[in-house]
Amino acid sequence: xxxxxxxxxxxxxxxxxxxxxxxxxxxxxxxxxxxxxxxxxxxxxxxxxxxxxxxxxxxxxxxxxxxxxxxxxxxxxxxxxxxxxxxxxxxxxxxxxxxxxxxxxxxxxxxxxxxxxxxxxxxxxxxxxxxxxxxxxxxxxxxxxxxxxxxxxxxxxxxxxxxxxxxxxxxxxxxxxxxxxxxxxxxxxxxxxxxxxxxxxxxxxxxxxxxxxxxxxxxxxxxxxxxxxxxxxxxxxxxxxxxxxxxxxxxxxxxxxxxxxxxxxxxxxxxxxxxxxxxxxxxxxxxxxxxxxxxxxxxxxxxxxxxxxxxxxxxxxxxxxxxxxxxxxxxxxxxxxxxxxxxxxxxxxxxxxxxxxxxxxxxxxxxxxxxxxxxxxxxxxxxxxxxxxxxxxxxxxxxxxxxxxxxxxxxxxxxxxxxxxxxxxxxxxxxxxxxxxxxxxxxxxxxxxxxxxxxxxxxxxxxxxxxxxxxxxxxxxxxxxxxxxxxxxxxxxxxxxxxxxxxxxxxxxxxxxxxxxxxxxxxxxxxxxxxxxxxxxxxxxxxxxxxxxxxxxxxxxxxxxxxxxxxxxxxxxxxxxxxxxxxxxxxxxxxxxxxxxxxxxxxxxxxxxxxxxxxxxxxxxxxxxxxxxxxxxxxxxxxxxxxxxxxxxxxxxxxxxxxxxxxxxxxxxxxxxxxxxxxxxxxxxxxxxxxxxxxxxxxxxxxxxxxxxxxxxxxxxxxxxxxxxxxxxxxxxxxxxxxxxxxxxxxxxx
Length: 750
Hints:
Largest sheet: 9 strands, mixed
Shape: globular
Strand order of the largest sheet: 23-22-24-25-19-26-27-28-29
């Protein structure tokens, strides 16, 4: 049965290959139009993530053709990339790419993506039924937008689902991000299937980020194993207008206005269950037509209650879960939600409803002479249906909104690290050397430094560049129990653009301890007020603190004081020096942060910390380098025990690293467990202790003659045999061209 599914007659392979080649060329022209830079990315290969940046269409076509079918996926950025990123890998693909395109690397938003997929377990392809249902849903959405006067989008088969791409022209800023995010929520509310629908097709609400990648149309998608029930498929272009017309900002705003958080109406002011249909009739609202969707009923009104000139562009939506929303496609009505509509149509309804609810509370509790105020709560079902914004990252992967503690031993460089954070955020530059951050105002309470020392340090960090305007420094502040919290609250009220507050140190601002309460209660109370302010304003507050003198395997136990401090904080960072390896490591953990560690290096010239990469990966790289140095300096072959004695390391750990180095071709094994440096070239070029992002990078030029067969993880699969023919089938841009040197693939593919 597998043979029947995977194998195809030669003529069908040739036809399919030519079709996919044409799709690849058309897709690349679409994303590279107007001279835009793209990134091609292949995750989940045996050589990590393969990535490269392209401004040359010929190079992009050739590389895609080589990669197609020989890696699990080929993705492409849909929005133009900062041209500076060409320097990472210009018109070529490299292995083990540490850095890929981030949201801040996008120049402008050119496409609005609607991604449709069937709900299914992760890591597997869709069934034919799921696949067809997604394509059908895409056609339904396309027709909906056509009725609303939108230009025609591109329609694509993503191999497991469907894509719609509308042309847009928006800046890459926070406002555009929120607009696209809300548009996707509107489409999800209208078109995602009810949970009982099988197969259930969902609109992906997470594809609003600027650096969004999609499968490059015309390439294979190999998610999991290919089975008769869930086969691998080619992604395809189903329809693509010769020129995509740009969707106006007004239409995007109108779409976004359709979604407001569904408001749960449980009771009417009369005390009866709220009935939307009855309410519409009672208030003489003229309904043009009613649309039934899988998870909602839409009442299209004859005219907008707020502006009769808007015609049939307003609608009331009743969701199956009981929520109700109102929206109008016109930008002038973007602020009018369901509550605003009730205020317009039914003045005084809130007072009547609140009075009715209060009377119901009294009757249900048999209390007629008492006013009982019940706090606002929610059911578990309501909680699960509520959409919450993702936490704000002030420094991606390092510092999130909320209260964080940075702890380390004295004189280790904590203040320099804080100064690096502050300058990067205030200037909108890069933190830790290479982490791009959004510009925002910063408040820095440098309570252990004098103005003279602060000026000297700031001059070193700025290196003759102007000081950022939004960087505010104080070296005197009241303690939290003596007015310090009020000072901070008032300052933040007058500086709404502030996203980061640094307090150096906690000891200088915390209130005095009270032995009556106990250490835990005192420590918890010391930062509880600061956490409340961080939550209130949605900002990051970073507290500098010290480590205990005693060591512990648990990082939380290394922080000076009781667990009241770490228990009250949202996140914890510990700066520790690791002698003999990286200058230091930064351990990070928290409620909304995945536990991680970063290797740091201190640049003494500018007194700035720079991130080298993942701490564990860096440690492994250092250990491998040490072993290579020992073997390189040895005139004889060596055993693991001899190497471990020189390095003073565990022999078992050394043995594992030797096996890894042997597999990488960096050393050779002779006899029983003896090793020496092989003829693989200078090992110093294979492992760079200064830049883990470039470690083990091996890229060579394109061969003069293309191979007839390309190695593949599933090389034995009949469906892949003959697929390398596609290399010679794209002739539109490859004949008589001068291909750039260095844009060819490496010796191996995975």
